[in-house]
Amino acid sequence: MSVQNRNIVWTLLSNTERGIALDRDNVAEVIEIISARWKFGAYENLRFGAFIHNETRHPERALPYFRRAVERAMPNDAPDIDAMLLQLEGAERQDWARELRQLRARSLAK
């Protein structure tokens, strides 16, 4: 996948953040297609998961991105992961937060 194709995701996310009227479910579909072909890091997966959870009609599709974020997190990503876990708990997703904390513990033990 070319860098130009990968950057489409960031352009779409930026446009939605600026209030440009785009179908957020279609943006999520583009995220799914491109992320299946490119290995994004923890921060990118957090952004994808947050967008899908907060901005689409299918928040349940965000969990795989949060899992990838935890799995790919480096020690300096800990504050972002911690913030995401707290936000999930605040959004009544305690089950997700619990699962992701367990995944994090396993990932750190490796």
Strand content: under 5%
Provide the structure class: mainly alpha
Low-confidence stretches: none
**Discrete helix count:** 6
Number of domains: 1
Question: How would you describe the oligomerization state of the chains in this entry?
Answer: single chain
How many β-strand runs?
A: 0
Share of helical residues: over 70%
Query: Can you give the mean pLDDT?
Result: 93
The string of secondary-structure elements, in order, is: HHHHHH
Q: What would you call the shape? A: globular
Q: How far apart, in Å, are the first and last alpha carbons?
A: 30 Å
**Major β-sheet, in short?**
none
Instruction: State Rg.
Output: 14 Å
Write structural notes for this entry:
With 110 residues, the protein is mainly alpha-helical. It has one domain. 75% of the residues lie in helices and 0% in strands. The chain is globular and about 40 Å long. The model has no long low-confidence stretch (mean pLDDT 93).
Attribute tags:
110 residues; 75% helix; mainly alpha
Explain the layout of strands and helices.
Blueprint: H1 3-17, H2 24-37, H3 42-55, H4 63-72, H5 78-90, H6 94-109
